[in-house]
């Protein structure tokens, strides 16, 4: 077993780090305050191949493994979680990559990589988040089309996306509850589609989040992804991969917060000596560093399993839960090390602190991750 | 068409790090330092790639040192350099700028080139001599502190930065060595496509014998400067750090200058 990154992975890491440090730092605060999506930086990142890098070269991607591409997400979040969310402009593409037909791949994937389009994935509704099967959006067949009605909540990229994956109840009478759903590709310009930006997020405010209303939106039957009735299973399969990405975001955020804490502890003098000379502070830093390393290893392992075509739902959930919790913990401790300065927006740690929490919520809250792990443990032992 | 050779060096980043001198005083502890391409070389490689993109031709990067130097050479390849060569030999250890210039010239003399770019200096030892000595040994002209390069039919019009805001413009025929100053372009980022494209590319290695240079011409014995020791200057007593927002800091500074009778 070798815990070293390959030379190429180190090069990717360095390239992503340089790009993020060069492009994110100056705009991070403004994007956060004004809830502004960093369009120019997203375009630049596309030009350099950072976006959709996991996609095969035949669709214009970098042909990287999942782990390689998560290194980019990690480095982006290390510099700024909000601007780092430009990585999520392809959130939903995994759906087509994993389950789509060849025509769908050729039509939808390349423009995401070149920066011509943005996508989204809409599962959550006002009355159903964790309980995915509780969704109420309906899809009714009408000739060669399906007609969608319903409301989707908290949808990342909702107002800036060109198309989105939508989960809807298509077969309400199916015998098995889990077989009542189908996933569709919905063109955001369709009549009856509307998106309203949700303001007032606590963190990752550079990322767009919206409420979507589908009112008699007509979708051609070619736009079904995967098989009809298999929507719920598709979503679970999708999350087995994308949740590791949230883990990588969390590791990056935690790493960034840790580095800020170390820097501040060296510079700040208390009682006549640098803060870091105090063992109480060293212990904090030690605990932060250890958890970051543990989280990183979980995330890398979960991703390596996917790259080896052996995705493991429990491993993914372990990585996602633990990394998310680590991000929240490390951001909190780092802010504590900053003292009063940490509470003022002159230092970026407050932005990290506010942004960390969502990592324990979206794409499966930590409780849901533990449910998945728990179920597997029951079967395993 | 223009063929350009760029000499690049891998240096530690000491800008924010705490520098600790080793016990023998002749080196700094570098285990915890991050290394990267010398800042000046980063501009030199960018300028060479820009010229190649505009005029066609080929860019070759050369570095001296162990396997760790590949990291810097690969970075140049990923940005668009066509070939890389690594010069390495135990005999090269301890070389000063002069010995490095001899090593580089031994490798370069057999290559096809119109111009050689080096950084104006290196961020670690700041000797600022290698490019000039390299030109001397190759028997070709050179220009230092180059801030602009225009190449037309084998003739370069270059601008040099002088003290006091003065600038000089020269015309130099190929072949020539230009020691590149920072700021003359905007170095590009490394792209994922670039990394992928060169991931399988081999970097050939040449030892002293391969480039026809003998052990006594290089390393410490072949050097003119012998490094005795590093030291960190004692902290000044008189320095006062002015803190605050730019507006506040300017106000405080003005007040001090006024108090000291500067106005
Ligand atoms: C910034 C942001 C971006 C988002 N982006 C997207 C997106 O792009 N697409 C999308 O579809 N959704 C998105 N979401 C929605 C997100 O995935 C949901 O908020 C999340 O799944 C939780 O669902 P919920 O909010 O309905 O909470 P609920 O499901 O109501 O859960 C409330 C709390 O109860 C806990 N809980 C629920 N069930 C159980 C149980 N059985 N046992 C114990 N505890 C339980 C949960 O963990 C949670 O802590 C986003 C959310 C945010 C905040």
Description:
The complex is a heterodimer of chains A (381) and B (263). Chain A folds into 3 domains: 7-114, Orthogonal Bundle (Butyryl-Coa Dehydrogenase, subunit A, domain 1); 119-231, Butyryl-CoA Dehydrogenase, subunit A, domain 2, CATH 2.40.110; 233-378, Up-down Bundle (Butyryl-CoA Dehydrogenase, subunit A, domain 3). Chain A is built from 12 helices and 10 strands. Chain A has helices at 7-23, 28-34, 39-47, 66-79, 81-84, 93-99, 102-114, 231-267, 279-307, 313-338, 349-356, 366-380, and strands at residues 119-122, 138-142, 145-156, 163-169, 181-187, 193-197, 209-220, 224-225, 269-270, 273-274. In chain A, a hairpin with a 2-residue loop joins β9 (269-270) and β10 (273-274). The radius of gyration of chain A is 21 Å and the shape is globular. The mean pLDDT of chain A is 96. With 263 residues, chain B is α/β, with parallel strands linked by helices. Chain B has a single domain (2-217), classed as 3-Layer(aba) Sandwich (Rossmann fold), CATH 3.40.50.620. Chain B has 6 helices and 11 strands. In chain B, a hairpin with a 2-residue loop joins β7 and β8 (155-161). Chain B starts with a strand and ends with a helix. Chain A binds chain B through residues 7-8, 10-12, 14-15, 18-19, 22, 47-50, 53, 57, 62-64, 72, and chain B through 70-71, 74-75, 78, 189-193, 195-196, 199. Flavin-adenine dinucleotide is lined by residues 120-124, 129-131, 154-156, 201, 209, 358, 361-363, 365, 367-368 of chain A.
Pattern of helices and strands of chain A: HHHHHHHEEEEEEEEHEEHHHH
Task: Please report the first level of CATH classification, the CATH class of the largest domain in chain A.
Answer: Mainly Alpha
Distance between the termini of chain B: 57 Å
CATH superfamily heading of chain B: HUPs
Percent helix range of chain A? 40-55%
């Amino acid at each position: 077993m070798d815990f070293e990154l390959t030379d190429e992975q180190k090069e990717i890491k360095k390239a992503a780090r340089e790009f993020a440090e060069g492009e994110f730092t100056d705009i991070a605060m403004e994007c956060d305050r004004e809830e502004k999506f960093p369009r120019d930086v997203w375009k630049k990142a596309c030009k350099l191949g950072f976006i959709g890098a996991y996609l095969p070269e035949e669709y214009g991607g970098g042909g990287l493994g999942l782990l390689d591409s998560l290194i980019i997400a990690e480095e982006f979040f290390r510099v700024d979680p909000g601007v780092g969310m430009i990585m999520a402009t392809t959130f939903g593409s995994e759906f087509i990559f994993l389950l789509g037909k060849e025509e769908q791949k050729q039509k939808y994937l390349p423009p995401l990589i070149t920066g011509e389009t943005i996508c989204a994935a809409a599962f959550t509704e006002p009355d159903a988040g964790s309980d995915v099967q509780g969704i109420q959006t309906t899809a009714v067949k009408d000739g060669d089309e399906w007609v969608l009605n319903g409301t989707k909540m908290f949808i990342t990229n909702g107002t800036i996306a060109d198309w989105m994956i939508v989960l809807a109840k298509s077969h309400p009478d199916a015998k098995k509850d889990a077989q009542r759903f189908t996933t569709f590709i919905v063109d955001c310009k369709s009549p009856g589609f509307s998106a309203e930006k949700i303001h007032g997020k606590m963190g990752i405010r550079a990322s767009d989040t919206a409420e979507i209303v589908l009112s008699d939106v007509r979708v051609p039957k070619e736009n079904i992804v995967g098989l009809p009735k298999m929507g719920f299973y598709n979503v679970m399969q999708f999350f087995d991969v994308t949740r590791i990405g949230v883990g990588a975001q969390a590791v990056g955020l935690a790493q960034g917060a840790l580095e800020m804490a170390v820097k501040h502890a060296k510079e700040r003098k208390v009682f006549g000596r640098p803060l870091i000379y105090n063992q109480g502070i060293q212990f904090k830093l030690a605990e932060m560093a250890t958890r970051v390393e543990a989280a990183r290893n979980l995330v890398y392992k979960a991703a390596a399993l996917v790259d080896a075509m052996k995705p493991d739902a429990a491993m993914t959930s372990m990585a996602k839960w633990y990394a998310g919790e680590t991000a929240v913990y490390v951001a909190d401790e780092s802010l504590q090390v900053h003292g009063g300065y940490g509470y003022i927006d002159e230092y970026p740690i407050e932005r990290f602190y506010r942004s960390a929490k969502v990592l324990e919520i979206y794409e499966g809250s930590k409780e849901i991750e533990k449910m998945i792990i728990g179920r597997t443990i029951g079967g395993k032992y | 068409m223009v063929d350009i050779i760029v000499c690049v060096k891998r240096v530690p980043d000491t800008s924010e790090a705490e520098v600790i001198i080793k016990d023998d005083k002749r080196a700094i502890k570098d285990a915890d330092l991050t290394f990267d391409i010398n800042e000046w070389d980063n501009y030199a490689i960018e300028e060479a790639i820009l010229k190649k993109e505009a005029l066609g031709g080929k860019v070759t990067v050369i570095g001296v040192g162990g396997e760790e130097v590949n990291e810097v050479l690969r970075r140049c390849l990923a940005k668009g350099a066509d070939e890389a060569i690594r010069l390495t030999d135990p005999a090269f250890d301890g070389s000063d700028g002069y010995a490095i210039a001899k090593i580089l010239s031994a490798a370069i003399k057999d290559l096809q080139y119109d111009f050689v770019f080096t950084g104006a200096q290196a961020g670690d030892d700041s000797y600022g001599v290698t490019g000039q000595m390299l030109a001397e040994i190759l028997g070709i002209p050179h220009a230092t502190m180059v801030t602009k390069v225009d190449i037309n039919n084998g003739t370069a019009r270059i601008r040099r930065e002088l003290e006091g805001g003065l600038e000089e413009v020269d015309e130099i025929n190929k072949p020539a060595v230009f020691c590149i100053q920072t700021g003359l372009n905007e170095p590009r980022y490394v792209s994922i496509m670039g990394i992928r494209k060169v991931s399988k590319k081999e970097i050939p290695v040449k030892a002293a014998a391969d480039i026809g240079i003998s052990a006594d011409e290089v390393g410490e014995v072949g050097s003119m400067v012998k490094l005795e020791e590093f030291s960190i200057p004692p902290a000044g007593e008189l320095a006062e750090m002015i803190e605050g927002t730019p507006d506040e800091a300017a106000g405080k500074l003005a007040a001090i200058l006024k108090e000291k009778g500067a106005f």
